[in-house]
Amino acid sequence: AEAEIGVIGLGVMGANLALNIADNGYHVAVYNRTTARTDEFAASAGELSDKVTACATLEDFVAAIRPPRPVIIMVKAGEPVDAQIAALKPLLAANDIIIDAGNANFRDTMRRFTDLEGSGLTFIGMGVSGGEEGARHGPSIMVGGAEDAWKRVEPVLTAISAKFEGEACAAWLGENGAGHFVKTIHNGIEYADMQMIAEVYGVMRDHLGMDAPTIAAVFSAWSTGPLDSYLIDITAEVLMVQDAHTGRPIADIIVDAAGQKGTGRWSVIESQMMGVPATAIEAAVAARSLSAMREQRALAQAEFGLPAQHDRREGQAVIKDLEKALLAGKVAAYAQGFAVMAAASAEFKWNLPMATIARIWRAGCIIRSRFLDEIATAFTNDPDVANLALTPAFSAMIRDTDASLRRIVAESAMNGMPVPALASALAYFDTYRRARGTANLIQAQRDFFGAHGFARLDAEGEHHGPWGS
Ligand code: NDP
Q1: Which pLDDT does position 417 carry in this prediction?
Q2: Which of 4, 51, 175, 183 is catalytic?
């Protein structure tokens, strides 16, 4: 047995991860349920072939790896992972490590930890972000499990991970489900980020009447400023591409219905369970669901038409406002995402290192950005802050962008431009920063119909109103 590590599942992610491992000088054994895919992989390994042992059976695969064996499972999330673990279990020996690197629901990961307890096998739940390119040349890697298990695989995982100014974007984040939870929130934030970019694109396209190449130039210019990020870069790039058949911008002929696989929804569900608002992520998930209702939207437009366009501002002022509104929206989305992680950290006793999370998201992953470097710094300076918005750097950013966000949301409302995530960000800030809210009325209503009681500003204890007397 000469392989130092194994990879099961040679789909987009598994195949690229295996090549990345080989590229970093580790000998890797690979296996895929469908053997044709294994053969294809072996044929495509090229000069890395001598670092790869392609196996047709799980038995051969296990035999090819030197014990104690680290085995990465990179198959479709859900039932296939359980099936794969069940098939592997009898073949592995004590101290072997099973690493689930797919997009698992962290609750499944928690269950798998419990299921494997006492088996002698070690389990790691590992979030990987970066898509195909990241898997091949350096993803962001979020690890959950026992810390000593992490220590055993740390060299290979840091070797294959992305580097931000030389620092590896791979880290141990906590016990059991911590890695997959953080990956889930990463994806939730990614949903919000993408949605808000799509919203300002919508304002430019449908309100300002700009064509795709003109919008591309705006995003391109933004990518040298505070919004500098992978998602802004690819947005600019995508909007510049022409369809070979029609000569039109390809974005104009892509169907406006977004897919989703679950991580955004899980982020929202978990945030709701913990009572932490993640309104920008919620708005983004709902927007994808609404996008999928194309037939209904066509019927509704036929029924209601579209609001008249007025208040159109021309020139650079509105573009500057859009840039700042997007930045303000980003602050809300990230503040919310980190607040959800803080709550989960307390609930599941993970002790999540917020600054480290921001640091390993600075390169490799889909939400990588300059902005994350600033978040890392903010949490390093102020590790226990209740909300990112309350750190000096981000509070300054909010002050600087608040008026722009307000103008863009107001103008969008007046012109019927849907900007649900940006509007939710504004509503979140406006609610969050108001010391005296309106829940006094809700408490009065609750006490009126359900005798739920309320607290008074001027006295201790629980009180009831003199309703109906
Ligand atoms: P692909 O669809 O490219 O590949 C799926 C893989 O899963 C194949 O190897 C397939 O084997 C295997 N598989 C499916 N069902 C079973 C089963 N019942 N038993 C055994 N193997 C099975 O998926 P990806 O590589 O894109 O995704 C893999 C994981 O990585 C998923 O959890 C995904 O959410 C996650 N991920 C994906 C990212 C991406 O950008 N694509 C980014 C980050 C995470 P077979 O060839 O036999 O069908």
Answers
A1: 97
A2: 183
Atom of ligand 1 at shortest distance to CA of 132? Answer: 40
Specify the fold of 443-469. Answer: 1.20.5
**Test site for ligand 1: of 20, 76, 265, most ligand atoms within 8 A of the Cβ:** 76
Predicted complex ipTM: 0.98
Query: Which residue ranges does the chain devote to CATH 1.20.5?
Result: 443-469
The CATH architecture annotation of domain 5-176 reads: 3-Layer(aba) Sandwich (3.40)
Burial of residue 341 (number of CB atoms within 10 Å: 0-12, 13-18, 19+): buried
> Looking at ligand 1, which atom is closest to the CA of residue 15?
25
How many whole angstroms from 18 Cα to the centroid of ligand 1? 13
pLDDT in tens, 248-271: 999 999 999 999 999 999 999 999
Q: Which residues in the chain are classed under CATH 3.40.50.720?
A: 5-176
The pLDDT assigned to 385 comes to 95
pLDDT at 310: 84
What is the SS3 assignment for the chain? CCECEEEECCCHHHHHHHHHHHHCCCCEEEECCCHHHHHHHHHHCHHHHHHEEEECCHHHHHHHECCCCEEEECCCCCHHHHHHHHHHHHHCCCCCEEEECCCCCHHHHHHHHHHHCCCCCEEEEEEEECHHHHHHHCCEEEEEECHHHHHHHHHHHHHHCCEECCEECEEEEECCCHHHHHHHHHHHHHHHHHHHHHHHHHHHHHHCCCCHHHHHHHHHHHCCCCCCEHHHHHHHHHHHCECCCCCCEHHHHCCCCCCCCCHHHHHHHHHHHHCCCCHHHHHHHHHHHHHHCHHHHHHHHHHHCCCCCCCCCCCHHHHHHHHHHHHHHHHHHHHHHHHHHHHHHHHHCCCCCHHHHHHHCCCCCCCCEHHHHHHHHHHHHCCCCCCHHHCHHHHHHHHHHHHHHHHHHHHHHHHCCCCHHHHHHHHHHHHHCCCCCCHHHHHHHHHHHHCCCEEECCEEEEECCCCCC
Among this protein's residues, is 295 annotated catalytic?
no
CATH 1.10.1040.10 domain range(s) in the chain: 184-432
* CATH code for residues 184-432: 1.10.1040.10
- Residue identifier of the C-alpha nearest atom 38 of ligand 1: 131
Low-confidence ranges of the chain (pLDDT < 70): 469
The pLDDT score that the predictor gives to residue 309 is 86
Alpha carbon 426 to its chain centroid, in Å, reads 21
